[in-house]
Amino acid sequence: MRTISLAAAFALAAGAALAADPIEGIWQTQPDEGAVALVQIAPCGGAYCGTIVKTFKGKEEYKSPNLGKQIVIGMAPSGGGAYAGKVLRPADNKTYNGKAQVSGGSMKLSGCVAGGLICKSQTWTKLK
């Protein structure tokens, strides 16, 4: 009986470990200079990275030069739905210190300078 209990406990722990992290998935950005992107966030190393997989102007899909760019870089979980890493803003092609806060189907993503004193944020919506 003890062996069965231990096996069940390990199976539950393994199942929880395989569950997707809240930041994983396809996210829709807010408009930036008239364009919206779909960003796929997936594990990369011990953190999470996000790559632009589709872009839209208005309701029409278009072939942006930013397709395939990694814009969420090395976001490591810091607990409570918070993450820290880097973000690339394609509009100015600059990389900023980044932070993200995931809450349900939305994520507030910020790029910061001056040690985090000045930040610009967007709220992204999770599509899947």
UniProtKB/TrEMBL annotation:
Signal peptide annotation: 1-19
Gene3D superfamilies linked: 2.40.128.520
Keyword Signal: yes
Keywords: Signal
Database matches in PANTHER family: BLL5882 PROTEIN, BLR1215 PROTEIN
InterPro entries referenced in this protein's UniProt entry, alphabetically: DUF2147
Name the record gives this protein: DUF2147 domain-containing protein
Record-linked Pfam families: DUF2147 (PF09917)
Keyword Signal belongs to the record: yes
Domain of life per record: Bacteria
Sequence ranges assigned to domain DUF2147 in this UniProt record: 25-126
